[in-house]
Each structure stands twice: as C-alpha cells, then as structure tokens.
C-alpha cells in the first residue's frame, strides 16, 4: 500500500487497518517460530505498511 493511498483513508479506517495488520503480523511471527511460514518476505512488507499507517495516524493527530 502506498502512502498516498493511505492518506486518503479516514481515521477510523486507518485504525482498523492498523489493528488488522498488527494481528496479521502476530500470526506470521507465530508461523515463523513454528517453521510454517511460506513467504518470509511478506513479513517485511507488513512491517513497512504498519509503520506507514502509524506515521500517517500521528501526522493526522497533530493537525
């Protein structure tokens, strides 16, 4: 997800997406520890998307 796409979302949508990504990341970490993770590169992408969303949430909160 690109930053421009994320900026178009409302605060409620951003918070929902943040929760969803956080949950997904948690499940992937568990799969990784159990040796069942099929796409380890996806973890990196999820972490970056989550960071983008948190950054934009902070930007919108400061306004």
Q: Helix share of residues?
A: over 70%
- Helix/strand/pairing category: mainly alpha
Mean pLDDT: 93
Identify low-pLDDT runs: none
What form results from the Cα inertia axes?
A: elongated
Rg, Å, rounded: 13 Å
The biggest sheet amounts to: none
Say how many strands there are.
0
User: How many domain regions?
Assistant: 1
- The fraction of residues assigned to DSSP E strands is under 5%
Query: What is the end-to-end distance?
Result: 23 Å
Would you mind describing this structure in some detail?
This protein is mostly helical. The protein has one domain (3-62): Orthogonal Bundle (Helix Hairpins). The protein has helices spanning 3-7, 11-34, 41-62. It is elongated. The model has no long low-confidence stretch (mean pLDDT 93).
Can you describe this structure in just a few lines?
The chain is mainly alpha-helical. It is built from 3 helices and no strands. It has helices at residues 3-7, 11-34, 41-62.
Q: Which features would summarize this protein structure in a list?
A:
single chain; 63 residues; mainly alpha; Helix Hairpins; 3 helices; 81% helix; elongated
Record the SSE blueprint:
Elements: H1 3-7, H2 11-34, H3 41-62
């Amino acid at each position: 997800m690109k930053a421009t796409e994320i900026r178009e979302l409302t605060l409620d949508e951003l918070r929902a997406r943040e929760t969803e990504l956080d949950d997904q990341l948690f499940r992937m970490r568990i799969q990784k520890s159990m040796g069942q993770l099929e796409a380890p590169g996806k973890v990196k992408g999820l972490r970056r998307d989550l960071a983008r969303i948190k950054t934009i949430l902070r930007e919108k909160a400061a306004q």
